What does this fold into?
Amino acid sequence: MSELEQAKRKDKKVYITDIAISKVPFVKYKGFDDSKNEIMRNLAMDLLLVSKDENDSNEVAFTCDLSRENPLDEVGVAFGSEHEIDILSDTLSNHLIVSEKPVAVVVLHNHPSTQTFSLQDIHFFLQYTKIAVMVVVSNQGKIHYLMRDDNYNLEDAFELFKECIHELEPGSSPKDLYLSALSFLAKCSEVGLYYS
It folds into this structure.
């Protein structure tokens, strides 16, 4: 199946190809200089390679401290399934995200589908305020990211999250869950979040 045909199946698993890895774009992250942007690109490419070679194109998460001199020296890696991942299951990732030490934590993970952030991703990002930037890399190399602006308001962000999920019920369809996530992402700038 060609990548074009796979792209039409947005909620279906897309297997990572070497072409997709090579096409990971150089993204100019808000507030990052070119050297940090290049580190982010390398992390995204490495993430897809690890997912492809070691996890059957399923979810993998990388966590690192971007404030380190060389953030690539120490990267936490967690392995998940096609539809979920427990980022905190990795000891280093857990330490970086929940420790008291102030660090600029970056979390990248891939989505085997071509979708952007899930409700679980958004909730995780809101819950762990030490995460400076959270990135989703689709298995085709498309990048989405969330970061907090200077006017970020945690309480307002959780209120918006509650608003976006209030009509969901236990057993809601994956489509309804995804539409709720898209609703949050469309409005998140109102609470001081930057989404790209």
